[in-house]
Amino acid sequence: MTRIKESVVLITGGASGIGKLMGQKCLQQGATHLLIWDVDPVSLQAVTEELSAAEHQVHPYLVNIADTAQVQQAAQQVLQEFGAPNIVINNAGIVVGKPFVEHTMQEIERTLQVNVLGMMAVTHAFLPAMLERRQGHFVNIGSAAGMLPNPRMSVYAGSKWAVLGWSESLRLELEQIAPGLHVTTVTPSYIDTGMFAGVKAPFLTPILQPHTIADAILRAVEQNQILLRKPFIVNLLPLLRGLLPTRMFDTIAGKWFGVYTSMSGFTGRTAPEHSRTGTNLPEKL
Q: Which regions in the chain score pLDDT beneath 70?
């Protein structure tokens, strides 16, 4: 069992959405230090002030995880100040919802840098110290999009397919060499945080509420759960895709459940200007 109480927790993308909620809940459960990595300086400052006002130990780091050098520099600072975190939640992610042909190469590269390489870079930066201690827990936030195709999210889905394969392979490696290190992979459907504003919930697949999924993730961490799929119907995806002919699965998922049209009205959350440009900002506020 992984203990949140008296632990050092690091969350990427922790200044808003479920990242912020998970950090708040970890502190409420007795985490001694919360290390928040985020690219948005305004949100980072606001959440730090909010949580610090409740006399919690909160430490903000302004980090663009798409920049490997920034990740490595910030990780060294964390290791010097706190040692290896007990729990690392790889939560930061972005989405561009449009047909693949309309993507720019900059959008494609940015999505893969943040959603895949950034997650790997953060894990790679802390893994040696956690291996040396032979204890720790990585939480990798993937997506149900990593288990099925979906029009207008081809690049995002591709990034989350990569996360799922990498995260599960990492788990198997660590189980062989360091049983005290754990990996939990989370594959939720749409979450009501604004990131997927405008989407239409597929049939029998309600849009998840942030508090509900944040609570479920932290319970999964405490129980060393390997996979967390939400809502429940997401558990059926691997079975259905494995058993059904592709065209039949397309009919069920696309026409009957409406998955393939769920992104038709996507608008997404417009990032504030300061969160789009933070490459020359200091690593820590």
A: 270-285
Alpha helical stretches, state H, the chain: 17-28, 41-52, 68-82, 105-112, 119-133, 154-177, 210-222, 237-243, 246-250, 273-276
Q: Please choose, from the candidates 69, 22, 15, the residue with its C-alpha nearest in 3D space to the C-alpha of residue 45.
A: 15
The predicted structure's pLDDT at residue 73: 98
Beta strands 227-230; 181-188: pairing state: parallel
Q: Cβ contacts of residue 177 below 8 Å, gap of 6+?
A: 131
Q: Are 185 and 167 in contact (CB under 8 A)?
A: yes
pLDDT tens for 164-199 read 999 999 999 999 999 999 999 999 999 999 999 999
Sign of the dihedral defined by the CA atoms of residues 193, 195, 198, 203, in that order: negative
User: How many other C-beta atoms are found inside a 10 Å radius of the C-beta of residue 192?
Assistant: 19
156 part of the active site: yes
- pTM to 2 decimal places: 0.94
Q: What are phi and psi of 231, to 5 degrees?
A: -70, -175
DSSP, residue by residue, 2-17:
---TT-EEEEETTTSH
For 63-82, what is each residue's pLDDT tens digit?
Answer: 999 999 999 999 999 999 99
Q: Alpha-carbon distance 181 to 94, whole Å?
A: 27
Q: How far apart are CA 140 and CA 153, in angstroms?
A: 20
CATH of 8-276, one of 3.90.226.10, 3.40.50.720, 3.40.50.200, 3.40.30.10: 3.40.50.720
User: How far apart are alpha carbons 117 and 162 in whole angstroms?
Assistant: 10
Instruction: Give the dihedral sign, CA 243/199/20/95.
Output: positive
Give pLDDT, residue 251: 97
pLDDT at residue 270 in the model: 65
Catalytic residue among 61, 156, 190, 260: 156
